[in-house]
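tokens incoming
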């Protein structure tokens, strides 16, 4: 397992390099540059040229990337065009708020979708299964931004139970519901597949209690596919944070990213892209490692 983890960590280097290269050049495909947002008519062209030179925007894009990459290797992502603060400081100030939203949402999703998926599979075609099947399809059909706005309208405007912005409850509910519906269906499908396997029928034929069959024999195998989906759902959580944090004015990294995009704040955009990519790939690595905790056979094959 140790060799496998080291091997995967080494593979992160070219992956992050590719992400940075594509993101940097795609970002510069947009017409204009940050100085185009200067609306003061008194700013002279020579002054704009000086600003562009100070920001390194007068260099060819490839040279700009080389200079950025050299500094990024030292964790220097430059300074924000709008505040003048180091990008790493701005991200460090916002990242805890994003994690405060993402981690509870991730844990709540697991704690809710796993038992619902198991019960739906065990009680297939029951009222419980049909009810949560309806809720799951409804949840997958509802856009996250619309759900956030409706929750804000209900609990803040109509009922006056919660403030519209600045509270964690509404964005947490929105983010959790947005990722819960599909994962519940995946868990149900995985559990149904395992329950139809020969070893489950053998366990039942031996007279084992149904509780032992479900939780000892079936659940452990049914968790392997859901771990894969949970790892792949991390990009959705990170992407959803941009929308949800903007709707609820949550002072996290996602909202900073949206503001930076509108401001064409290139250093902050690149910093957020790289930190988001790092969170995603590390989350997928943790999902792979979790396979070994669920099924020891996977651990041995990876060490081989």
């Amino acid at each position: 397992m140790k060799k496998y983890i080291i091997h995967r960590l080494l593979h992160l280097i070219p992956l992050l390099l590719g992400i940075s290269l594509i993101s940097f050049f795609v970002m510069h495909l947009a017409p204009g540059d940050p100085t185009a947002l200067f609306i003061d008519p008194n700013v002279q062209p020579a002054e704009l040229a000086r600003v562009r030179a100070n920001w390194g925007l007068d260099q060819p894009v490839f040279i700009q990337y080389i200079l950025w990459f050299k500094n990024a290797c030292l964790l220097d992502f430059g300074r924000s065009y709008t505040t003048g603060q180091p990008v790493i400081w701005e991200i460090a100030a916002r990242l805890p708020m994003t994690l405060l939203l993402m981690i509870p949402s991730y844990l709540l999703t697991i704690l809710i979708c796993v038992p619902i998926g198991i019960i739906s599979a065990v009680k297939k075609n029951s009222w419980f299964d049909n009810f949560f099947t309806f809720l799951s399809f409804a949840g997958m059909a509802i856009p996250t931004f619309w759900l956030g706005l409706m929750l804000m309208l209900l609990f803040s405007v109509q009922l006056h139970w919660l403030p519209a912005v600045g509270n964690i409850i509404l964005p947490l509910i929105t983010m959790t519901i947005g990722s819960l519906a599909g994962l519940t269906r995946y868990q149900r499908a995985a559990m149904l597949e395992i329950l139809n396997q020969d070893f489950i029928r053998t366990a039942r034929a031996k007279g084992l209690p149904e509780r032992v069959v479900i939780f000892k024999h079936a659940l452990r195998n049914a968790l392997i596919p859901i771990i894969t989906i949970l790892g792949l759902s991390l990009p959705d959580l990170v992407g959803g944070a941009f929308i949800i944090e903007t709707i609820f004015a949550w002072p996290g990294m996602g909202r900073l990213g949206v503001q930076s995009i509108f401001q064409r704040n290139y250093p902050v955009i690149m910093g957020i892209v790289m930190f988001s990519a790092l969170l995603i790939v590390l989350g997928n690595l943790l999902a792979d490692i979790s396979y070994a905790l669920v099924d020891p056979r996977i651990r041995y094959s990876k060490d081989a």
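note: The chain has two domains: 2-72, 93-303.
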